[in-house]
Amino acid sequence: MTEQKRASPREGYDRHSSLDVPADALHDLASRTVALTTEYLNQISELPVFPDTAGGMLTRLLGTELPVDPEPLEQLIEDCRRIMYGSRQNGHPRFFAYVASPANPAGIFADLLASALNSSVTSWRSGPAATEIERLVVRWLGSLIGYGDDEHGLLTSGGSMANLLAILVALRSRAKGNVAHDGLWRSNTPMVIYASDQIHMSIPKAADVLGIGRKQVRAIQTDERFRIKVPELQRAIEQDLQSGLAPFCVVASAGTVNTGAVDSLQAVADVAEEFGLWFHVDGAYGALGALDETKRSLFRGIERADSVSLDPHKWLYTPVDCGCILFHDEQIVRAAFSANEADYIKVLEGSQEESFAFWDYGIELSRRFRALKVWFAVKYYGARRLAEAISDDNALAQYLAEQIRVSEDLELLAPVELSICCFRYVPRSIREQRISASGAQQSEINKSLDELNTRVMLSVQRGGKAYLSNATVRGQFALRICIVNFRTTRADIDETLNIIRAAAQAVEDS
Question: Which of 31-35, 277-281, 332-336 has the lowest mean pLDDT?
Answer without folding.
Answer: 332-336
